[in-house]
Amino acid sequence: MLVISGKGLGCLCILAAGIGMGMRYGKLLYRRNRESRALVKGLELLYGELEYRCAILPEAMIVCGEKVSGTIGCWFADTGRRLLTSDGIPFCTLWEAQIKELYERSHLEWDSIEELGSIGAHISGTDKQTQLQAIHTACERIQKTEQLQKQKLPERIRLFSSLLVLAGAFIIILLF
User: Using CA atoms, how far apart are residues 143 and 45, in angstroms rounded to an integer?
Assistant: First the structure.
């Protein structure tokens, strides 16, 4: 009798772990979507600061970082501060370091991070139109990725949760 209840408890634990992992993955996907939206908002604000307020890039990034919340806002503000205090460090080197840091701290997809990395060469120039065009193009691409993520979000969560519960059921079957 004790063995059967122990097996039953073990089965429940395995199924609960599968459900819990599915819920955790769902939260990760929602967080990724929220950060993608924040990144688009930050880039749009950066575009506006550079275009209409005629701010220099570091100051514009700090202002955008203060207006956008979360990891993305902190990244914008931190990047702006580092640009202001970059004692002889080339912009491209500093930008690559900041992109790597964002990749480690955020839940963004690699495509969005790569898009941000690609605009680094363009926004380092002094030509305002080149900066604005690079930011606008990156913003559009990231926005398309974010919209695609948003459309696929519910089905991805259901699929992953179902697969984890089925994997738990398969492990239970193997144990018996």
Answer: 14
DSSP state of 78: H
CA distance 15 to 26: 17
CA 71, 74, 79: angle at the middle one, nearest 5? 125
Taking Cα atoms as reference points, which of 122, 155, 176 lies closest to residue 29?
A: 155
Ordered alpha helix ranges (H), the chain: 2-51, 57-67, 70-84, 91-105, 110-123, 128-175
Question: What pLDDT digit, counting tens, does each position of 58-110 carry?
Answer: 888 888 888 888 888 898 899 889 888 877 788 888 888 888 998 888 888 88
Please, how many CA atoms are within 13 Å of residue 63, restricted to the half-sphere of its CB?
16
Length of the chain, please?
176
pLDDT digits (tens, 9 = 90+) for 146-166: 888 888 888 888 888 888 888
Quick count: other Cβ atoms within 10 Å of Cβ 121?
13
